[in-house]
Every structure is written in C-alpha cells, then in structure tokens.
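Bug #77: duplicate submission created two jobs. Keeping one. Sequence:
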Amino acid sequence: LSIDNETDTDGNSNSTAVASIGAPEDAPADFDKAIVASGFGRFNLILLLVAIPATCANMFESTTMSYILPIAECDLHLTLTDKGVLNACAYAGMIISAIPWGYLADTKGRRKVLVYGYLLTCICVIGSALSQNFLMLVTFKFLGGLMVNGPAAVLFTYLTEMHGPKYRPNVLMVVGMITSTSTLLLPMLAWGIFPRPWDFLLFGGLDIHSWQIFLLVCALPSLISGLVLYTMPESPRFLMSQGRNKEALEMLQMIYRINTGKPKDTYPIKSLILEVPSRDAQKDEAIYTIDSKSEPVKRPSRTLLESLRAGMQQMKPMFHKPLLGLALHCYTMQFCIFLGMNTIRLWLPQLFASMAEYEAEHASEGGSATMCTILEYSVNKTAETLTNHENACAVPKTISMDMYLNNIIVSFCGLVGYFFAGAIIRLIGAKRLLTYGLLVSGVLGIALYWSINSLTTIVISSAFVTVSGVAVSSLLGAVVALFPTQLRSLVVAIAMMCGRLGALSGNLLFPVFIQIGCVPPFVMVASVMLRTVPLRQSISVYFQCAFH
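Kept job's structure:
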C-alpha cells in the first residue's frame, strides 16, 4: 500500500487536484470530496488493524458456546435443550437490541457506540466466564448478544465512512476476510486451552475450569477494541450529518496529516457543505446544500412530527408492489439460509465431539459409525450425565484431538471458499451462484443423514458451511442491487434481523428433532435451504421487471 498520496504529472497531489476540479478552491466540499482529499495511507491501515479484534469480538460472541458445550455439560448439568438455548440466546439479544442501537448510533455517534458497546460486551463475556450454573451463563450470553449487536453493526458503517468511494468495497471485503479468519481462531484456541488441567477456586468460592478460561480469553478482543477505539476519531460523516462541520473538518485534517505526513494547514478543503443547521444556527438560517453549492438557501428546521412524516413517506414504497413482495421474499430467504447454515455450524463441535468419543470407546469394533448412530449415542450420553451424574462425570471430561482438527478443517474450508467467492461470482454471476448455492446446500444438508464415518461427515459439513456462506454473501449483494438507495439500510437491517431469528429458531429446534429421531433434524435443514430456491427465482423475475 502506498503511504503517501500519488502525484499527477505536474507533481501536485491528486487529492488536491480532486478537491479543486470543477469548483473554486474556497467552495464548500461535500463529504466524498473531503474524505478523498484526506488521502489513503497510515490512518486507514491503522483503522483496518483495529478492525481485526473488533471483528473477532463480534464473531466470538455468537460462536463460543458451541465449543464449550461438549466439555461443560458435566459442570453445568446440560440437557440437549439447554445446549440449544445456549447456542441461541446471543441471537435473541441481538434481535431485541437492533433498533435501540441503530437509534443511538445515528444520534450519539459511531465512536461512542463502538467504545461503550465493546467494553460492555467485555464485561458480559467476563460474567459468562465466571458463571457457575446454566441460568447465569444464559443470562450473560443474552446480555452479551444485546451489547455486541450495536458495535458489530456500526463497525461496518464506521469503516466505510472513513474511506472514499474508491476503497469502500475493498474495505468490506477485507472485513469479510477477517470475519472468516476469526472462525478459524476459535477451534485453535479451544485446542490450546481445553486439554489443560485448569481446575481451581477463585475468590474462595468460584469454581473455574478450562472452558471458563477459554471464555475469559475470548473477552480480550472486545476489551482491546473498546480501549483502542477510544483513541480513534468520530466519523466526519456523522459530524456533518449533525451540523458539526467545524469538528468534522478538524477530524479530516487530522486524517490528512496522519496519511500524508504534511501539516494540517495544507489540507486542501477549507469548508464543508452544511447539510443541516449547526447547533448554534438560528431557525431559518441561510445554509449551503448539496443541490446549491454556490448560493445559500433558506431551509427551516423540522419538527419531530414533520421528521416522522418524512421518514414514513420515504418508507412508503416498501409497503407497495413490487418492493413489498420483493422484500418479503428476501426476508424469508435470509431466515431460511441462516436457520440452516447456523444450525449445522453451531452444532458441528458437539457432533464431532460425540463422534470422537464414540470412536474411542468402540475402537476394537472398528470405530466408524453412521450419523444416526452418533446422534443416538449423543442423546444417550447426555441423558446419562443427568440421571447418573456422579458416575458419568467422575472422570474429568476429555475431548479427543480429532474434534479440534475437524472443526479447524471446516473453518479453513469456509475461509478458502470466501477467498474464491468473488471470482466465482464474476464467472457465473450472482444470481446463478445464489440458485446453485442454495440447491447444493439443501442436498448437502440431507446428505449428512447418510454419512457413514467421520471423514464423510467432515467433507459434507465443510462443503455445506462453505457453499451456504457464499450464498449468504450473494443474497446480501442482491438486496443492495435491487432496492433504492434510501431503503437499502432499512431492508438490510430487517433482513439481518430475520436471519438471526432463523438462527435462533434452528438452534432451538435442532435438539428437539434429535430427540425425536435421526431423520427430522436433517430434513429441517435441507427443506429450509431448498425452500429458498423458488424464492430466488421470484427475485430474479422482480430483478428483470425493475429494469423494464
């Protein structure tokens, strides 16, 4: 990456050239022109480094429970239903907190939400690490989901607002890669911590085991993120939206100085377009607008009722054809895909642990077993820990090394799939990729039923997680392409909420279906994935109609 701005043929900075083309030097600049003029360099690189622990914190909060379930079932007296609740409770917190966090981010600022959100998440993770029973753990995981949802969503907004239009797609791609990499870190952490014989009393009364140390380590990304983001500036885009142009200009000058190494006074932009009246402005003050950059115009401030009416008017197309039907199709697809993908993804550690334990106990018989045998074994083993707890849990729980390796392989395949997703989309197109991806995911979901050994399970589950993950990315890309700019954020937010509701539902239903029989859980996963294929065809029709 080039640290300094590139120069043109006359030796002048490109950012300066961009700022001066088509307008007088002292004319107010809009945000895109101002952020481009600040350059791309050291500050942006620092920002992406900060995104690494922040993205890990987001992923850890919704995934850590799946890794502690096999090893903590004796300490917490867990039933299969309890395990499903632990996997799902973080998503419940995320669903409830979506709207309040969005309001706070748009009124109080991106930086405050990021700092306080991650620090509060850290407190909740520490609380879950110190939990002594199932109820305490569920409560702290629910609160953790409640807290992490705000910064997790705002992080994408904050990063894109700190970059010019040229770099925004690349930034989102980098964040996606970091997210995929963070899923690989969890099984590696579990591999390094769970086998350790760490059992001791803390403060004279708190029993601490290796799985609690694992959760404590998983609190570090959120702590680091909160502390580091405290030193970062507020988004200039947010400041401009609040009429705080003086502060926004100071932030842009600071970014320019860090990126270029030049004094702040040499920043080519001297004033910014006043998008809304400043805090000190009087009602009906003359202000600059984007549509009229050269002459000031009068714009009276709105009342709360007028702002509400304007917002409802903007959302009005969402409740009429064709956008209403299209949005409902997208919400249903997101619900189904997340239900299938996150159900299998979060239950894989438990399935691999049961598989490794069964193969160890039946090594003399060959060790291999079908998926139905493994599920039956898991149900019986969980029931034994509850009915005969003293004998079943007399020996400390140990997990075979194969469990960690299997999860690492699945996570690595998902990471590789994400790296090739862009090339595949360009090769066959986003619509075809979404259709074929959903179809293949549904087939793989039901194919797990016929898995005959651990190797087959690894291959099928790795392919399922990889293909369904690419399908999710394709669907979100379709949402962005199909809806008008003023409705995209709303549609994406509702779609993500529906996805989390699907993940919540799947993880609650999966243990119930396991106890019913071997076929129902895989039929559930396959049916919801295949159900989305005709919906995708309907979206394709809407897509074609939109351009006609």
